[in-house]
């Protein structure tokens, strides 16, 4: 871990972030970071415990003179999205994140940085450890598995927390204050298929789509970025229609909440079409790269002949259904909000496509701030996949967070921000899945707000956190703590 990170200001924040990033913390594998956080709370002599689902709660009394203020919940999630570049050798289960400073940005070498939500968690840790920061009574809530199912928030029981105000430190633009967010549901389509012997005189190719930006499937879905699964399907469709291409394997995308950056397919065509197939593919590749030259300048599509001809390929009838279903399935923005300018209301991310050994799996994450619209799109996807024989399951559904423009804590934050920066903040709702809406189901009277420092490229190896923004954000947090309303 580079010492240059620990020397950044504010040192309290960056040192805690460095400590946290030394601990492996993939979603659903949070044992090490849970133990780390419990050891941290206990080392400070603070009340520290796990709830039934393994969220960690740490309580700290008010500092002298702040005892009459409302108790606040400071909340962040312990897990992080694990993504790396194909050429990066890294074991997320055992290694800490390798960080470095690049101008005004902190980055990681070839992997996600974990600033989402590590900077929020580090902020809370620094406040808990501090001896000179004024604050009211604090309940620090560190949830688990936010990135792959909101498990911690969904299973936090009512009555554990006593705070009246919740500050969620998990947004990614420092001039925004979030008062609402989208809910989501996983839409997973699966089916089996028969494999058939590869015809004689076949030639094999490996098609690779790579170099896409990727990114957060909520916050970045409106940017017109390329989806590796949709681009690959377009190539397979053309190859099948014109040359009888047959698929042996497909592996596209990775995490449900990350826009897929890469896809690889192993295919065959009849030897008689060898040169014509490659020529045709190069024309399509040129068209696709021209379409994405602005948003995806590093897009690379490779078609390489392979000496290893697969022994078996997909049944042609199932293959045709698969390709047409993926072509039909909606990806990207489905509807913009009619109530809040520039807010995506409903979207879908075709996140993962796996075809191998007689099994198909297509994983989607559908998001919406309107519950009925969420299931409208989910049912559209379900219909497309069921028409070609898939079993479709909805899982991991979680609610959105309905904006409250009359929130008392919103008024506090807006006034402080305007005083510090001589301009008003943007009061927004976001298309990501924040935990506030879920937590509000068991704590309906809690006044909630979300904010954070500027982080770009979350959920991708291009994730980076602004150093100057972290300084601005830290100053904002300090004054908020001093101005929590009286009971």
Automatic annotation (TrEMBL):
InterPro entries (alphabetical): Peptidase_M20, Peptidase_M20_dimer, Peptidase_M20C
Enzyme Commission no: 3.4.13.18
Catalytic activity, reaction form: Hydrolysis of dipeptides, preferentially hydrophobic dipeptides including prolyl amino acids
Keywords: Cobalt, Hydrolase, Metal-binding, Metalloprotease, Protease, Zinc
Record-linked Pfam families: M20_dimer, Peptidase_M20
Gene Ontology MF: a single term: metallodipeptidase activity
Cofactor(s) the record lists: Co(2+); Zn(2+)
Residues annotated as domain Peptidase M20 dimerisation: 208-293
Biological process (GO), any one: proteolysis
Superkingdom of the source species: Bacteria
Signal sequence, renumbered to the chain: none
A single GO cellular-component term on record: cytosol
PANTHER family per the UniProt record, alphabetical: CYTOSOL NON-SPECIFIC DIPEPTIDASE
Family: Belongs to the peptidase M20C family.
The protein, known as: Cytosol non-specific dipeptidase
